[in-house]
Amino acid sequence: MVHSESLGGDLQLVHLSKIFGTFTAVDNLTLVIPKGSFFALLGPSGCGKTTTLRMVAGLEEPTSGQILIGEKDISYERPYRRPVNTVFQSYALFPHLDIFENVAFGLRRRKVKDVKPAVDAILSLVELDGFARRMPAQLSGGQQQRVAVARALINRPEVLLLDEPLGALDLKLRRQMQIELKRIQVEVGITFVHVTHDQEEAMTMADTIAVMNAGKVEQMGSPTELYENPRTTFVANFLGQSNLIAGKVVDRAGDLGVDLYGNRIQVPRARTSTNSESLWVGVRPEKINITLSDKPVLAANVIPGVVTDASYIGVSTQYLVKTAWGEELMVFEQNLLNSGARPGDSVNLSWDPAHTFALDANQDVDAGVEVLEADS
Amino acid sequence: MRARRWLPYALLIPGILWLAIFFIAPMFNLGATSLYDPTGSLDTGYRMTLHVANYSDALTQYYPQFLRSFLYAGIATISALTIAYPLSYAIAFKSGRWKNFLLILVIAPFFTSFLVRTLAWTAILGDNSTFVQFLHTIHLLGPQGRILATPVAVITGLTYNFLPFMTLPLYASLEKIDPRLIEASSDLYASAFTGFRKVTVPLSMPGVVAGTLLTFIPASGDYINASLLGQGARTSMIGNIIDSAFLVRLAYPLAAALSFSLMAIIVALVIFYIRRAGTEELV
To answer: How close A344 comes to chain B (CA, Å)?
Structure first.
């Protein structure tokens, strides 16, 4: 609409690094973010996701590497010359300007003659018709957030950057805004790059998620792919919860046969991200069936244990089950299939081999666990 | 709950008493004095004759000094703003760990008396001072030219003396500006200069208004700078006239009428200014 000359291309980060003194915030990052996608950079605080975003916006200069939109290198372009706009974490609305002037700010700087139709249209897109003459301080958090989105979107940037845009909202409003932002993105078709530490938020909104840790991308893919087939212990723990059990490969014919402290289980080859003999075998808590030990088991991979804790939380019952080697495994059982297991009962945990994944044992089993807790 | 209702009023009492004794009573007294029969004296006593002509006499006789006061104070205010804005901007945004040290330097002159500081300027601007000699050398000043005893000296003194009153409120309002707003403006296609003009300046207006008022008001009533650095009738300000009317000529009704006129004019100017600046919430 405003940007008629389209650079028409993907956002590419090529060997991008940012070093502050002795701290490497972003470490040789290479990413391609396809045009028109809703992309999330997910990670704990301090993982470098915001620094990456600020480099794309031009608010931080890269120590090395390149940022390209299509063919054009914008790495050292001034922020006000980039076809990129940002929705800031604190919204950063101009307190001395009313909503209309806040939204029109970018157009006025580019000497657009008649801004009124565009401002009215964008305010109605974010459902704030009639708010044009209010001041930012008179708006609620959710409304301010939508003004911030409108103020950035009205410029029709090649890429819209969102820096934890929903962090300041309460849970209910946040859920509502997630759906709203997704709707807007589909409607305008602009590339959205969304930085967040909230895995549920990233999974709700993004087509593609890059999980970042310590300045690097741990894994990138669709929410389903990341959740179902994590390739590192960090992703397995940071995105949802995982049971990780130490195992040894005993059979490589077809699917992997793995020994877990004397229990033989199967892992599909496609879900194994290592050639190592020692593995972390992972399974998500909701994929596990729990059955009392005198009942038939429901799937091929089986581990016996004793229930140590059961909490009924409405949608599911969450069990902690202690195995023979002392590890406590989490099991979420839908309240549809009531096993009747109670603390102290001997049970069998069973799951489908297709729900098993295997990671290289040469990584910290707790990576991504403590950061998640420290963050929330 | 009930006991608390009178508490705010009780807390107001010391302030109200203070104002009543040290502000309202003297003002009333001054107002009365300005309407006394001017032919009286301290020895013979004054008669209250509601002599309104004291005011017209004061204004017709001394309007040049009034005008000069507002002119000098106005120029000094603009000079102080010109110096203080970049200074407070640098302290607020660019000084890093030197911030507190620089703020102390701004306040440091208050550790010596106003009078002593102004006297120091007579040495700096004196005919044989290094500064004036230098101006002679580079021919910026003619062989007979001087700085002391000129309007330049008075305005320099006023600017210097009231600079902290300009700097501190400016600093306070600049320092409050969220740097993310500047980032947001650059993200929205504003160059550094445009961002400054459209975001920083409007948001610092409360500081500009407070600083200019705190400089202009005392500067227009000041008499020390004119008397020490101006040294003569050609540069005397209204403060000097009031000073001599009260303390030398003992013409109390005239002095009181001058004081009241000065106050009324300043109040009118301030109201006009605040309306124009559009920061009513300041008062």
So the answer is: 56
